[in-house]
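Field reference: sequence -> structure
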Amino acid sequence: MATHVMPPASRRDYLASHRVIPVENGSDAATPIGSSSDPTTSNGSSRAVAVKKLRLSKSLILSQETTVYDACRRMASRKLDAVLLADAEGFLSGIVTAMDVVTKIVAVGLCPEQTIITKIMTRSPVFVMADTLASEALQMMVQGKFRHLPVVENGEVTAMLNINKCLYDAISRLERTVEQGYAIAAAIEGFDSQRQGKFSAPFSFTEVLQERMFKPFLSTIISENTKAVVVSPSDSVYIAAKKMLEFQVRSVIVANANRPRGILTSKDVLRRVVAQHLSPELILVKKVMTVNPFCATLEMTVLEALHVIRDQNFSHLPVIDREGLVLACLDVVHLTRAAGLMVEENAGVFNGMANIVTQKSSDYSPHVEPGHEEYDTRSGLSSSITSEGAETEMLYPPPPIGNSIVFKLTDKKGRIHRFCCGTKTLFELVSAVGQRIAIDGEKCKIKLLYEDSEGDKVLLATDDDLVEAMNHAKSIGWKVLRLHIDDLETNKAATSSTSGLALIKRNEWKSTRAGILVGTLAAASIGVLVYLKRHKV
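Structure field:
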């Protein structure tokens, strides 16, 4: 088992001998969560990364006699928000985080200079071994609702793991789910078009897939537990800390008339107030808050939010509505848990798609007599999704694996849009961009450019241009292709030379798409294709 709880008999293995207090790091019992050591069974990822391979922070270990003020000062100097404690014999005895300082010192009016740190520490913290998979460590933190894990190697505490270091796994799993969803939806749509719409009227399965996989917006995961706690800029840090304690949150949104002006986190209080020897009762929130924080909208997807959290090293993400009013504040643990649940739920959607295709195929051809060679089309379909490279005879050659690519686009308001798209037709990509920036599809008169490896902006005028751009990005190892919008109104010269071709492509799109989707269907639905071949429906 890759995740352990240290037995109490060993000098360095003392952590499990006491009950864990569920505050910032810990659960009701120091028991391991997620024990699988198989990299393909615990998270479905083929790129298993051990914790020790991540860029870990050096752990700061202090004695139990240290005062809270001294601990905060040393944490601030090293830009840490958690510290480990050792007793006189060298045993690891506990952990203290910024949340502990805020809720157990500032919010209750204790003096940091006169309080010994053992009074606020979480005893017997959960830990991981250095060779534990990062995915398992992430699962531990999500289920335990904490963000820090001591890392133990050869009986010694060597580092501290922060949850943000493990986000790659959550992001990659969700990205794979989205890519599978695109392939399956395309297969269903292509099969339906080949069957002349026999399936679409009663089921609209493609729309279900798009809602559940392609558009898991933040609006779908906001609940009462994610409601933002709001304070005024003129409130004291002491008032803000009391609200953090009352609502058990690690941040408060600083707002005027419910419009965000800043954010104050437990880390801010530790570094900018306690470590600076300032009085929480006298210091106003506006003096120490982080001003103008990045705010997400309800239309941002969970995947995009995870990218923002990881890329910007955020711990909290305020969410606003279309009027700019604060709705919620999501933290990294909540987002990671939501991503994991979506991956698990969508695994059932894949099987549901197979059932529907099989059932509707039977409805379309009810007089088929099963032969001794007939096999379960559902199993064949499922295996075609999960097993890449299986040697199977098919009607059509399989499409290249990984046709989809991630596009990144900045609109005129400076908002960044990030989305996956498996299309090789320019019209479909333009339509996707139009939906992203809220332009009616019939009036979506935009030209797209992509940024090549030399930094030049190259016009996408034809489908071949798009294919070349995607191949170029993949050939140099890019995971993201950056797009730019070239407004037709300001670029009439460039538009006139290609407007006729764009019109032709608009009319040809359906026929071109049919061929592509048939190929996708071949890879995603082996059973259905064999059935069609055998009975010549």
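Note: The radius of gyration is 27 Å.
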